[in-house]
Amino acid sequence: MERDVVVSDPAAAGSSSSPASCSSFAETRVICRVCQKQFAQYTCPRCNSRYCSLLCYKGHSTQCTESFMRENVMDELKQMQPEDESKKKMLDILKRLHLEEEMESDGEDESILSDELVQKVMSGEEIKLEDLSDDEIKRFRQALASGELSKMIEPWTPWWKKPSARSISLSPDGSQLIRQVNMEDTAIADPITDQEPRIDEIPEGPESPLPSLKQLTKAEPSPLLAVHLVDILYSYCFTLRLYNGDWHSDPLGASTVALSMSKVMGENAKPETVPEALTACIEETCSPAYRHTGGFKFAIGLVDDIITILSLGHNALICALCDFHRLIEAGKSMVKAEKVSKTESAQSSSKLRGAARKLFFMTCWVHEQPNEAWPSLARIIQVQKASLEELEAGSRKADRKSSQQSKVLIEEL
Q1: Where in the chain is the domain with CATH 3.30.60?
Q2: Which of 203, 261, 348, 366 has the highest CB neighbour number within 10 Å of its CB?
Q3: pLDDT tens digits, one per residue of 194-215
């Protein structure tokens, strides 16, 4: 068995002139087992190997990292039992959603905007509710709920679905790499047109090196952080898709939506399993406030978005979390500028500050995880997605059967 290389460092013992005292108080330090160059500051929790940095941790033993994630996957799969609480809750959500869809379809034969209102939308004219009649307001809200207005908007292609997202590069310390300067970059910026970043670009990583978790907290990171990451990524993808990629147009509104969707950031929730985290997010997506986005079908698309970002790996995750952090910070700045009561402003600022801290900590945590962690987490979510789709199909089938039986009974009566 290979032994650790131990070095005695008399200089660390103090300024005693006695050789005996130097020997007795000398600080014993261990050399990194991987690079054999630096002093080891950390210990692998699985094999107790000593290492000096994240790079050496990743290279010290693939068996440690892979077996660790494999055990996590198996633990999650064991918790996905047919009769678990998450499944029962999801069935209730789906039944309620199908009932509301039926009531809406029975209540109105059509939800078509007037020609005048369509022209206003198409011309880009600002529409205020106070300028509309009661009938126009009703039609406008129905068009929002049915998705009729979304057909008039050019669909946004998320940055995580672009080929360039597969080759994101960051420095080993997590910070953004220096970009090459070209002629376009040296041109004088237009303060009107250049004040906002283009929404089709890959979001930038951290501007400065990320600190280690040991610098942020003395406590050990929660083993549930991977589950909380699922909640945060869902909220991020939901918000960007709702704003068609352009959260910069309304940072305060976007940050408010993000906190209402993320129970981890908005309500300090601590889901313990992936099904629990996803169920809470999907329930919010299917609620009356957001049902117009597409309900369960839209929610499943967001689960796919999470899987895609995880499959892109380490750097894409850091860029996504940094983009989310900037969104929350922009919302926080807008709260100060908005004319709201002091109490309301203090509450909003407090929530946004807490969310920003959580996002920064999550970014640092992600940076220290081995890249092997993300495919394993993606597989857990993929299994859960298939389970949700099967559940939804069964629920619709049961609802149709129940509806047909009710109609037959009514006809007989």
Answers
A1: 6-60
A2: 261
A3: 344 555 588 999 989 999 988 9
